[in-house]
Amino acid sequence: MTFKDLGICDSICKALEEEGYNNPTPIQEQSIPTLLNGNDLLASAQTGTGKTAAFAIPILQQLYLDHPQSKGPRKIKALIVTPTRELAIQIAESFDTYGKYTGIRNTVIFGGVKQEPQVQTLRRGVDVLIATPGRLLDLMDQGFINVKSIAHFVLDEADRMLDMGFVHDIRKLIARLPHDRQSLFFSATMPPAIVELSGKILGNHPEKVIIKPEQTTAEKVEQSLYFVSKKWKPKLLLHLLQTISYESVIVFTRTKHGADKVVRALDKAGIASAAIHGNKSQNARQKALSNFKDGRIKVLLATDIAARGIDIDQLSLVINFDLPNIPETYVHRIGRTGRAVSSGAAMSFCDVEERAYLRDIQRFINQQIPVIPEHPFPDDEEEEFVKKPSGNTKLPSRFRDSGSKPAGGNRNKRNPNYRGRR
Ligand code: AMP
User: Fold this and answer.
1) Is residue 295 domain-resident?
2) For the whole prediction, is pTM greater than 0.85?
3) Alpha-carbon gap, residue 197 to 170, rounded angstroms
4) Other Cβ atoms closer than 10 A to 76
5) Nearest CA to ligand 1 atom 14
6) Distances in whole angstroms, Cα of residue 85 to Cα of each of 131, 173, 211, 271
7) Which of 124, 232, 291, 392 is packed most tightly, with the most Cβ within 10 A?
8) 246 in the same domain as 118
9) Among 32-36, 248-252, 306-310, where is mean pLDDT lowest?
């Protein structure tokens, strides 16, 4: 199956080819034809499945072929609403990439920055607007955004919108959109509140597409588990970063404070890293993200909300410094690696208090995550687990080779805190 087979026009196919997209992913294969027919869509799929292209490509094509540019400033014809700034920026980048030969113009608006540059761009006219809910309503209320011409509306990451308390904003927004429109609704999970919301947004007979997380991420990612006591987690992280080879790694912590603490610990050991989370300014987050994307730093610390949807090519490794208490979040996290077509690895640290989370996760993904029994910082709070530790850490196969040098400083020193059996 190719994009051409799905009815995608040459101008967009050319851009996709240049991007190395040879074949559509399952969600693209299932969604694109129905969207090109003008149907509504209810899709249960998460980041990592190729869902952005699944909605961006057919919207671009419909705007390109069905709405030849008339005289005067452009009117907003497609609106994509998404919960976080990072995700909004990435969606705009995707529209730029796939639409580069179509002349379709987009812009992105989000809060936390001055509104003036955003207003200027809106005044010049855009075809596609990508927005977070708060700033969108704000600029609508101020009269800078006219939604009357919107023919395509996408609500992205709907479950996360509700988690983040955007439900009232969304309801307000929907009430102001034209009735005659194509609506697309994306959510990783479909609890009753989400199904109810989707009913308010979508027409009577939306096409339904379900891409199960197990199909997409958990099966493709090489997962491993390290039982470790809480106090040894920073040392284990340092040990791994100094001994394995990787291109880039996102380390997830549960709290913002935890992320900052790890950055400081790594810094002391000569490993450059940066944290993105809600306490950082928008500029600091963007800078950290672009340094990471450019390869200037290889280690990015993130909390779940900040990392939501960040799209980084060739991310080889995710480390769960803390296990999430929601199993879906685990799948989201490891979905940062193993994106759409390539595969990756995910290492998880589990202390004794996190054992219950681990059970829930394993039940959810319907897999036992392979345990790495030998490492220098075992869980000494769990009697039965204490094993003879060995300097020769056994690593998941993809990291075992290592003709290449391990990343990070301080490479050949043995960890001074490794005191053998404890
Ligand atoms: P998403 O689920 O939209 O966050 O996309 C996940 C990743 O898959 C992104 O890095 C996309 O650039 C990539 N991607 C999406 N569709 C394809 C495709 N058909 N072929 C190759 N890569 C893709």
Assistant:
1) yes
2) no
3) 9
4) 22
5) 50
6) 8, 18, 25, 28
7) 232
8) no
9) 306-310
Burial class (CB in 10 A: 0-12, 13-18, 19+), 291: middle
CA of 57 to the centre of ligand 1 (A): 12
pLDDT digits (tens, 9 = 90+) for 345-371: 899 999 999 999 999 898 888 789 999
Q: Which atom of ligand 1 is nearest to the CA of 309?
A: 4
**Rounded distance from Cα 50 to ligand 1 centre (Å):** 4
CA-to-CA distance for 386 and 378, rounded, in angstroms? 7
Residues 369 and 226 in one domain: yes
Q: Could you tell me if 267 and 294 are in contact, meaning their C-beta atoms sit under 8 angstroms apart? A: no
Provide the CATH number for the domain around residue 309: 3.40.50.300
* Ligand 1 pocket member 90 (CB < 6 A): no
Indicate if ligand 1 lies below 6 Å from the C-beta of 56: no
| Residue with tokens 């600091």, as numbered in its chain | 284
Return the amino acid letter for 138: D
Range of the domain at 83: 10-212
Distance CA 258, CA 200 (A): 39
Protein residue whose Cα sits closest to atom 19 of ligand 1: 24
Report the alpha-carbon distance of residue 379 to residue 121 in Å, rounded. 55
For ligand 1, say whether the CB of 47 is within 6 Å of any of its atoms. Answer: yes
Task: Kindly state whether residues 42 and 174 are assigned to the same domain.
Answer: yes
Ligand 1: centre distance to CA 340 (Å): 5
Hey, what are 407's tokens? 């990343």
